[in-house]
Automatic annotation (TrEMBL), chains A, B:
It is found in: Mitochondrion. Its main location: mitochondrion. It catalyses: (R)-lactate + 2 Fe(III)-[cytochrome c] = 2 Fe(II)-[cytochrome c] + pyruvate + 2 H(+). Interacts with CSRP3. The lineage of its organism: Eukaryota, Metazoa, Chordata, Craniata, Vertebrata. GO terms for molecular function: D-lactate dehydrogenase (cytochrome) activity; D-lactate dehydrogenase (NAD+) activity; FAD binding. Belongs to the FAD-binding oxidoreductase/transferase type 4 family. It comes from Erpetoichthys calabaricus (Rope fish). One of its GO terms (biological process) is lactate catabolic process. This is Probable D-lactate dehydrogenase, mitochondrial.
Length: 491, 491
């Protein structure tokens, strides 16, 4: 697991450089210093104020919200437009310097850790919202625009962008990591909601994956480059614009909480709700440990039993239908009466509590570290995998409250452990591997939404097989022959 | 346009071979003969009965339903399982022989035309429906399974597969060409509905794009190979299995026909219906020429004015809501009362008429040839492009009834012309280019669903630009360095 890898010394990094050399990828000088004339070239492009080699700035950019230890880049640059990104990339290309794109740093698999040193492109100064087409339900944004900033901007238009991974991530970062989250069961993930990307390739050239300015709802014009770059975690290029599908804000929204006598009852209800074709907007599972943690952290009073947080979107009439059908199912599985959150304030409170599950879990053991696992299985396998995982946690005396987007078959164990206790770290490490392999054995994936990053490279190989991984490596090699784009991630 | 290209002589083919050589792709011998010992190797794999070099069999496999002239392969092979496909591919790889995968031959851009000779793999004998998971709404099918065969098989399960391009195409062929059609506005295209693919690569190796047997609803495990192969038109590999999302058959379905005083009124209604977020299942536009042709061909009596064919899916209650809201919109645009098709037989009759639009158009000028154009634009651009296109057809005295999946911004002119009249052929050629460029100028695509094939390679370059095309070429080169997989298509 990550936590082990991240403790590797500079020496280990050199070993990894060696491996890349075997792949015929030339690598950045191991000394980790950017020559001063190169720094001058960067300054000539973005100005003095937008180049930093300061220790604390570099440290801020060398890690995300995961357990992967900080590996700072050698410099941080703040380009302000695509032309600057392109020019900086050309300089890096000439001098063989790795590039790590950086948005809000809210990733969970170490995607921004500077494994081979190099420069970090902090893209938050590129924060324009461009070309809102209300009548076509699409908008184009630069990498500095976050999910909530876009939705604030859209508020008066009656439109919104529903993909919601919890964190207030940059939308281009969400495209790069194929983010999803609580609304994906109804509105899809970034894969279904990105219409076009502007990407700077490793040689500084700029492409538009669907052609410049294009925003047709569907196309069959050549290879689907858009979805090749969505989820490529910065390893194929730097996303500098994304064109997104938007949706009308639903006429009516209601949220509800339902408690269950057992995990099986909650998960069975989820499966049945989906099988009945109820177009539920969110269906989030929290196990007893998780709801207890949320109660304490967010000052709530829900019963400490397996729980579903639900949300329904639609017209008054269709909502009534959805709710009635859902209640029938939950009751038949022994679920409680619904506890309602009808107005915006109540709903916000509910979903804030859900999104704060991570911090609530951490608060269970103050001073400890957290690691959010992430697996996804076909929905019919959910009861089995959740039950087995609960037993596994218990058997190995680990703290890992379970929360998840069960409507997609996706869930997380929010592992909380004492990183100074190497024996416990080892137990967490083995548990997360077992969990991922349990998902693989049930036709699932080792990551539904957090990505591969640093932590899941071995599991990726197990998931897609040797020939599948070989194809990914070939694509990486042909688009980034010098292995400059976020090296050491995915492949 | 296709019709011109397709008349090119063997000499032109050699020119094209030459071009490929410049791209460092080795090519099949220009003499177009497969050595007898190679044919013997094929026979050793699939048996004598599954290898044919007969003229008529080859001719049947050298064209699709488009205007592209037949270019027969040098042999046709019928593998019966993925192992045979792999073994045959290895033989072709050793002997540098192009491979063209063939499903039902219902493509519309010349995707199966054997530009460089080679062998056709007719995949229809691989016709097993595998691993139906009713509880997870997914199924895996071999390439010989067509859309209607799958839906017949599913009938008693209460499930269906909605993507419906009209033709009874092979589902793996639909994946290869990124097909969509009438239901895409609600259920998405093949891109959104393929969960996994088994693909034989040019060296005979077999990959599963999402890992063998995997069928999680979402994944962020590495590059999205599934959507790289969806729409790759056989140029990156041979799809030998596809795992598809299924849907519950809607509780209630009703179809309706609505006539409008003008194109603008019909298209404005479409745009407003979508903008109101009505989850309409089908919304098909037919212009006056098209509805007249359909009336004649399918013995119907609809008013000869611009028309929408609509379909609503849902519960009784939600249907009523959808219909009421839609009627309000159509009436405010001067639309007629709805003419209803409520029972299955009536609905079948209606949609059969829509799907027979192609034959209805051809029947307008018996003995003439047809070419279905295909463009897609953001929905707000629809009124403008349809109006301009109608004027263009009129100005150049061309027969081109318009029909389209306007809910996606996608429509076709079904061009009917005398292929012996070279001046008319030229006018059609110029018109279709103008139409595609009109779509490009309005932020759209030169092909919403028919693909690039042979006919739109130049337009693809205009659409995605030089750097975009270069990326596609690189991917092609690295996955198929000998240019054996359906050469001459897309890139």
């Amino acid at each position: 697991m990550a936590v082990m890898l991240s403790r590797s010394s500079r020496q280990l990094c050199n070993v990894s450089l060696c491996t890349f050399a075997l792949h015929k990828w030339r690598c950045y000088s191991a000394q980790g210093q950017i020559p001063s004339q190169v720094l001058d070239s960067f300054r000539a492009v973005v100005g003095n104020d937008n180049v930093s080699t300061g220790t604390s700035v570099r440290a801020q950019h060398g890690r995300d919200e995961s357990v992967h230890s900080c590996r700072p880049p050698d410099a941080v640059l703040w380009p302000k437009c695509v032309e600057e990104v392109s020019e900086l990339t050309r300089i890096c290309h000439r001098h063989n310097i790795p590039i790590i794109p950086f948005g809000t740093g809210t990733g969970l698999e170490g995607g921004v850790v500077a494994m081979n040193g190099g420069v970090c492109f902090d893209l938050l100064k590129m924060d324009k919202i461009l070309n809102l087409h209300e009548e076509d339900f699409d908008v184009t944004v630069e990498p500095g625009v976050t999910r909530t900033a876009l939705n604030r901007y859209l508020r008066d238009s009656g439109l919104w962008f529903p993909v919601d991974p919890g964190a207030d991530a940059s939308l281009c970062g969400m495209a790069a990591t194929s983010a999803s989250g609580t609304n994906a069961v109804r509105y899809g993930t970034m894969r279904e909601n990105v219409l076009n990307l502007e990407v700077v390739l490793s040689d500084g050239s700029v492409i538009h994956t669907a052609g410049k300015g294009r925003r047709a709802r569907k196309t069959s014009a050549g290879y689907n480059l858009t979805n090749l770059f969505v989820g490529s975690e910065g390893t194929l290029g730097i996303i500098t614009k994304t064109t997104l599908r938007l949706y009308g804000i639903p006429e009516t929204i209601v949220s509800a909480v339902c408690s269950f006598p057992s995990v099986q009852a909650a998960v069975d209800s989820t499966v049945q709700i989906l099988q009945c074709g109820i177009p539920i907007a969110r269906i989030e599972f929290l196990d007893d440990v998780m709801i207890d943690a949320c109660n304490r952290y967010s000052k709530l009073t829900y019963p400490v039993t397996p729980t579903l947080f639900l949300e329904f979107h639609g017209s008054e009439c269709s909502l009534e239908e959805q709710v009635t059908a859902t209640e029938e199912i939950t009751k038949s599985n022994g679920g409680s009466e619904f506890s309602w959150a009808r107005d915006q304030e109540m709903r916000n409170q509910l979903w804030k509590a859900r999104h704060n599950a991570w911090y609530a879990a951490l608060a269970l053991r103050p001073g400890c570290q957290g690691y959010a696992t992430d697996v996804c299985v076909p929905i019919s396998k959910l009861p089995q995998i959740v039950m087995e995982t609960k037993k596994d946690l218990e058997k190995h005396t680990l703290t890992g409250p379970i929360a998840g987007h069960v409507g997609d078959g996706n869930f997380h164990c929010l592992m909380v452990f004492n990183s100074a206790d190497l024996e416990e770290v080892q137990r967490v490490h083995e548990f997360t591997k077992r969990l991922a392999r349990r998902a693989l054995a049930l036709d699932g994936t080792c990551t539904g939404e957090h990505g591969v990053g640093l932590g899941k490279k071995q599991l990726l190989q197990e998931e897609v097989g040797h020939t599948g991984l070989k194809v990914m490596e070939k694509i990486k090699t042909v688009l980034d022959p010098q292995n400059l784009m976020n090296p050491g991630k995915i492949v």
